[in-house]
Amino acid sequence: MTEVKTKVREVKLFIDGEYVCSSENSLFEVKNPATQEVIAKVHEASREDVDRACLAARRAFEQGPWRTMTVQERSNKIRRMAEIIIERKEELASLEALDVGKPYPVALGFEIPRSAHNLKFFADFMEQQGGEVYPMGEDFLNYTRYEPVGVAALITPWNLPFMLTTWKLGPCLATGNTAVIKPAEATPLTVSLLGEIAKEAGIPDGVINVIHGYGGNSAGEFMTAHSEVDMISFTGETSTGKAIMKTGADTLKKVSFELGGKAANIIFEDANLDKAIPESIRAAFMNSGQVCLAGSRILVQRRIFNEFIERFKKAAEELVVGDPQDALTNMGPLVSEEHYQKVTSYFEIAKLENSTLITGGKRPNLPEYLKDGYYLEPTVYVQEDPKARICQEEIFGPVVTIIPFDTEDEALQIANSTDYGLNAVIWTDNLQRAHRVSHSVRAGTIWVNCWFVRDLRAPFGGYKKSGVGREGGHHSLEFFTEAKNICIALH
Ligand SMILES: NC(=O)c1ccc[n+]([C@@H]2O[C@H](COP(=O)([O-])OP(=O)(O)OC[C@H]3O[C@@H](n4cnc5c(N)ncnc54)[C@H](O)[C@@H]3O)[C@@H](O)[C@H]2O)c1
Ligand SMILES: O=C/C=C/C=C(\O)C(=O)O
Fold first, then answer.
1. Global pTM?
2. How distant is the alpha carbon of residue 427 from its chain centre?
3. How high is the ipTM of this complex?
């Protein structure tokens, strides 16, 4: 592990089947969030590099054979990528832990296997798909084909880099498109390996290209403006989604956006707290709270409010914050100084808004070698006013707010009072209430008595400012295909 931690890697661009340097020889550094040591020097894609990547993807799309091979041939190659990911799971997990600062067991046990599954699932799923036939009596016959759209820009954030990239890449490839991928500048390590994984799996050159760089006035913007890119699948902040939509508008690109969240986690008085408390802890603090689906607003019914707070506080204080490579660690550091500044700015806001600090709100005491990492204690506030900024804005760190409520109607009103609508969590043993509340919360995913349980066939995406469109199962296939109807006169 020490060698993994201290080595400084050179991360190149992967264009048209080859790892290449930035044409302007511009490199940026990536740091280990746990220690702030430099772990990689990354080639930044210039406008010319982005152009080459988009043209390579276009050529690979137009000239084939990717688009024209049988579904089974394509799916076999995608499944081979999934197998290679599993063969290399320890290496990928330690790189992800190093780059993002997340606990190694989480990367190894959840994210890397899920990444392989993202590819295998869509390869298998695509093999089950067909077209449609609409006969018009004896005179005409319609049949419908689902054809790939072309070149996709896949842009992903730093919190779950490999998992979220493969979640887009699986359906993109399975439907016969080609891709230009840009991981977040803070966490490019695992995604950069997709080039060699694709090559080993026999994916033709140009089908997968990986470029690196920043967003505005850098690789992200260049690719979303590029005339050879037909569609953009983006996961990240709501404000970035708006910028990308504007840039993509000139060339009328198709977009699919998975954006921010501020999930209500509603605990009714009849909930089983023995389950609700540990899951609410996971929903609040997994990946240091840097999860779009985080249950960051906990709404608790007044009758159980004090008991909930006491037990939740105790459980939060038991979490081990520390070195992500240490097997006992529950919570690593935040990803960067910039993000730490954003998250800790909410401590001041919380004070100004008269929130009550229950626990946390500061750096934990840690060994000397971790002194430069951006660590925070799990932080819990109580706030009576659901309109306060800490109840409304996505903090994206280990900070949750507990809000009391009296009635089901009040809980619903609070749950629906933010601009976001990605997901919500409901804890109740009352079946009717579970359904009633699920129907009335305006969010794309509702988890009842559980959190972050995923079936990849299910639609995934957000209401309101949490997204545009849905991914998952046939929803992903619809985004990555054009439906073509062919009408034939039969005589
Ligand atoms: N809804 C979901 O499924 C989901 C999943 C994970 C994260 N997120 C959201 O992601 C955010 C955290 O991630 P982040 O800080 O990396 O997000 P971000 O929006 O800052 O960056 C995401 C990606 O977009 C790129 N980018 C930034 N500006 C761009 C521009 N103008 N044009 C093109 N590309 C641009 C970045 O370089 C990065 O690769 C949170 O808001 C979180 O809720 C959402
Ligand atoms: O941080 C966000 C988590 C997103 C999860 C998914 O996109 C998924 O499970 O498919």
1. 0.97
2. 25
3. 0.95
